[in-house]
Amino acid sequence: MPCRPPPAVCAATTRRKKANGESWSYRDADGTLLGQKVTPLDRVGIYVPGGKAAYPSSVLMNAIPAHVAGVGEIIMVVPTPKGEKNALVLAAAYVAGVSRAFTIGGAQAVAALAYGTATIPAVDKITGPGNAYVAAAKRRVFGTVGIDMIAGPSEILVLADGTTPADWVAMDLFSQAEHDELAQSILLCPDAAYIDEVQAAINRLLPTLPRAEIIAKSLNGRGALIHTRSMEEACAISNRIAPEHLEVSSSQPHEWEPLLKHAGAIFLGAYTSESLGDYCAGPNHVLPTSGTARFSSPLGVYDFQKRSSLIEVSEAGAQTLGKIAAELAYGEGLQAHARAAEMRLQTVPDMRVTP
After folding, report:
1. Nearest to 22 by CA among 35, 7, 37
2. Which of the chain's ends, N or C, has fewer CB atoms near its CB within 10 Å?
């Protein structure tokens, strides 16, 4: 189904393009130019989960940065259990500038985006989270297309100093546990009495939630309330885990933030619930999981652009660079490389012969 963004979205995107990922270049004193040409991808595919719940927020988090980056065509795939098309998902696709949408999900949707079908066009990159089958499929097609990351189950880690109401922390742990049974929810705190308060809050609040069964299985299987020696130790453990979502639920969150190196997103202070980041705080909610925050970043405009190096060597610059290139090329035994550089020299040296 075709989707066309309202004019206001297009106008806003045009303004933002100028502020994101601009090409740049500079010239040396001898006139040689170096730089980067930043180009948006031609066509991307966004995978929107839809097996156990509908996620219009995932549409926005994937399509908006692609639109801002200037991607020519955004193809959305989304599963529709029992053939039911979610109105909020389709509305989000329209508002965010999705070009075409297809009601297909799972590994087969990833394959369709990567290789193309009679109806679904092949794309240059696939972004967006999914279940284990979607993640495995993205891993398999990487190289044919680009991917954003291999997304695992949802994660939250809360660093608490005991000053936040226990009910708040319990509900924050629930916010990720309710995604699915494999989600991970962890509390690290140096206050044993506070941990008991959070456990009591979990026991009291859990029966009030519609997805209580999923939350209970998640907490029993992959949840933990851990008593640490100090907040410093809690920060060190957090860095080892490198969680997707990291809440610093403390009266002085900026005291601990410098100690935190690895996390997809860091939520500072008692009022900054992870759920705000999922929907409307500003940063993207497509985040690295399973410890990959040690080397990965949140999805952003930069994921929908590529960079080409720009090189223009002046005649004067060739006199300097040509000699350097030739010296290295002869050292590697690549005479054609060396001669190509030397032919640009004003005084061409005798050709070397390497045994």
Report:
1. 37
2. C
In 3D space, the residue among 153, 126, 123 whose CA is nearest the CA of residue 140 turns out to be: 126
pLDDT tens-digit profile, the chain (355 residues): 545 444 444 444 433 444 457 899 999 999 999 999 999 999 999 999 986 678 899 999 999 999 999 999 999 999 998 888 999 999 999 999 999 999 999 999 999 999 999 999 999 999 999 888 999 999 999 999 999 999 889 999 999 999 999 999 999 999 999 998 999 999 999 999 999 999 999 999 999 999 999 999 999 999 999 999 999 999 999 999 999 999 999 999 999 999 999 999 999 999 999 999 999 999 999 999 999 999 999 999 999 999 999 999 999 999 999 999 999 999 999 999 999 999 999 876 665 655 5
DSSP 41-59: -SEEEEE---SSS--HHHH
| CA atoms of 242 and 222, how far apart (whole Å) | 15
Catalytic pick among 67, 179, 245, 262: 245
Let me know if residue 241 belongs to a domain. Answer: yes
The CATH number linked to 252 is: 3.40.50.1980
- What domain range is 62 assigned to? 7-149+300-308
Could you give the C-alpha distances from 62 to 87, 125, 322, in angstroms and in order?
18, 12, 45
DSSP 8-state assignment for residue 121 = P
Which pair of structure tokens corresponds to residue 186?
A: 């962890």
- 120 lies in the same domain as 182: no
Q: What's the rounded Cα separation, in Å, for the pair 229 and 234?
A: 8
Beta bridge partners of 160: 249
64 with 135, same domain? Answer: yes
Question: Domain tally for the chain?
Answer: 3
Report helix, strand or coil for 248: strand
Query: Is-catalytic flag, 244?
Result: yes
Do 74 and 163 fall into the same domain?
A: no
| Residue 207 resides in a domain | yes
245 is an active site residue: yes
